[in-house]
Prior knowledge:
heterodimer; A: two-stranded antiparallel ribbon; 16 helices; B: mainly alpha
Amino acid sequence: MSRAEATAAPAAFVPVASDLLRRRHWALWSAYFFLGLFCVFFLAPPVYMLVTSLKTSQEIAALEGSPWLIREPTLANYAALLGSPTFLNFFKNSFMVAIIVVSVTMVISTLAAFSLARMRFLGSTVLATGVFLTYLIPETLLFIPMFQIFTWLRDVTGIEFINRWWILCIVYPTLTVPFCTWILIGYFSSIPKELDEAAIVDGASTLQILFKVFLPVALPGLIAATIFAFTVSWAQFLYPLAFTTSIDQLVLPVGIVTNLIKGDVFNWGQIMAGALLTAAPPVLIYAFLMDYYIAGLTAGATKG
Amino acid sequence: MAQAAGGAYRERVVARGGSLARRRAWIAFFLCLPLILLVLALVVYPAFYSLHLATLNKSMTRFVGLANFTFLFKRETFWMVVEQSVIFAVSAVIFKALIGFLLAHLVHRLPDKGQRKWRGMLLVPWVIPPAMSTLVWWWMYEPSYSALNWLLRSVGLEAVPWLGDPYWARFSVILVNVWYGAPFFMIMYLAALKSVPAELYEAADIDGANAFQKLIYVTLPMLRNIIAVTVLFSLIVTFANFDIVRILTAGGPRDMTHVFATWAFKLGIESNDIPLGACVSLFMFPILGAAAIFILRDVHRRSRELAGVTG
């Protein structure tokens, strides 16, 4: 408003207005300049990942010219990976773990968040706080006692837990459930109370209120929580590194780090192709659902 | 007579209401039960169990009290790990916060329709699984093929032994962490900047405030809470970081880049000394405790608001 008035102002004010405009212009261009600089810094590694993945081993080893350019682009690295049963098995394990963890997480968090956002029971406020604190406990603190607990469970029950891919489905919810519950509490409690009162008047049961009122209304929150759970379980590195070792039990991140590096032989083209394929699912989700992704990221803190 | 009947009726209603409330409380509790079981069995129990593990001998057959701790205190490596963990976490968080703050301001200054595109590009490092982006950093640091050294040489600078020299290696792991984490700060601050009412800046403009004064007297006070929360979160996460150091250096050269998490992994899982590993990872507790106290205050305020809204 003020800017529009300034440009349409009488002749006497024109020099001031154009000075202001010039200053705004300059500020804008300097912003673009610095943002461009940071974009180069932020995007150089993924770009270099792509560049390397499209090179032949000979070209990588040649050490001629710029390493940032490709002279003979090839898809051989991707073909080799996608034709390798080992790599496809990593993919399968990762997908299985992610799908199971996301389902388990969403069931547990939705039920708990519904209860904590709308109902009261002895200790429910303590629990809501506790959930948040749980989210702060890093996995690096828990992996050693967990390892020992699973070893002990094997001795007692005779079931092998360590070195089975599905153990990750038991462990990952500790990373996903607290945060998802927390952001869902935020979404659920922003739903007007009149909505569930109306449903109660219509004779809806508690579960009907959850499924017919809360889930549809809080759909953006559910999507954000699902994305969070997926990306966390897809990217997790410490637990699979500690708990799984056999090649057929590995998930993608660990499989690529431990398996494509054989002794001192580094097949960098394939490693980068594998890294890119592993990064692809979360990046694609981000590209298509950016607003939900960011809503999930910021919901945890800005609502506090 | 009528009064008595009315009283009995009211009593019945109250009793019914009481049992209904009790039933609702039970339903509420059962809905939370999976969450409670998960947290108790896989977070609370392991956390306390690691306290117990830390007091056992290597074969976990004998109680040795604090012997593991005194053993650690006598090792030079332990103090190096403490030092490096603190250097790593503090410097990385400072740079992430500064870069994030700067970027948020720059993006906020752009016209609305351009913001989405820039924000989308700048958040990419945060979206890629850290283990995978660390791999490409490793490849860029690789001594004989280093793409970074190629760039340095092409502008006439000396090649840098990124991971070969202990001090450069410390710098390199911090650089990767800053690269990965700064976009998160940007997103947080950008969301917060958007919630600052424009009237405040207009009022400051009328009072003749310059850009720096607006930053100090309007933006920073309005963003104080979110800055505190993000810095605290990031401090915890960075202090407990594992992926980056593990993949880039695995603690080397000469154990100079080990942080608590990677050293605990090396001792506990790789060297099979679970009690000692548990012992090392326990040193992440103090920072957690301090953070928890700060955050609890915040959460309490929020649950009070929540109670106010619903009750």
